[in-house]
């Protein structure tokens, strides 16, 4: 159920097996969890099963083109925010513009170097989904490290369960902002989990207990949701 320990999932939509495999191997080596699909229909099945953190999408596919798929996924509520990196043999400027206009986040022309591909994927994730790449978040004396899964308060380690960790990581990523229970369910538990809003309250309570003296940074905004604030509040 918890996805905190999981690596960023990248769906590779590419009908040429040798290229798909080359990309998958490099992504796996770099700490991602690659998935594969050979056409738009197979890609849609993968997305329906589990929404990826990013899609590497070939332009020339059997059936629907990568361009048509980009337009389709951008219109869909489930996929509109998923970053897309387009991959194609076409180097022509109008095609790049068409891809970007359709909603792709970046564009890689074949043949490409795997280092360039990885750098572009990192850059897109950093811009569009910072929670998948940033290692350390600091708010006041509270420090959370997603690489080592450690949280410290004034240098002292705090003990958090995996779900509390991911919940705190999300709240710290967007400090001062108030998040509703529904938003937290979607962002922290993932869109495939059907649980009640009340579950959020249960984990917030556990998180407060784990935070101890730092728990006053975790604020309940009545009737709205929760936020992490740098201002210490009276609770
Ligand atoms: Ca192709």
Count of helical stretches: 8
Task: Spell out which ligands are present.
Answer: calcium ion
CATH topology of the largest domain: Rossmann fold
Q: What overall form do the CA principal axes indicate?
A: elongated
Structural class: alpha/beta
Computed CA radius of gyration, to the nearest angstrom? 20 Å
* Total DSSP E strands: 11
Residue stretches low in confidence (pLDDT < 50, at least 5 long) are 1-5
- How would you name the CATH homologous superfamily of the largest domain? Response regulator
Structure description:
- By secondary structure, the chain is of the alpha/beta class.
- The chain folds into 2 domains: 2-129, Response regulator (Rossmann fold, 3-Layer(aba) Sandwich); 134-228, Arc Repressor Mutant, subunit A (Orthogonal Bundle), CATH 1.10.10.
- It is built from 8 helices and 11 strands.
- The chain has helices at residues 17-29, 40-49, 66-75, 93-102, 114-128, 162-173, 181-189, 198-211; strands at 9-13, 33-37, 54-58, 84-88, 106-109, 136-139, 142-145, 150-153, 156-158, 218-221, 225-228.
- The protein has a 5-stranded parallel sheet, sandwiched between helices.
- A hairpin with a 3-residue loop joins strand 10 (218-221) and strand 11.
- Helix 6 (162-173) packs across helix 7 (181-189) and helix 6 packs across helix 8.
- The site of calcium ion has 5 residues, from loops.
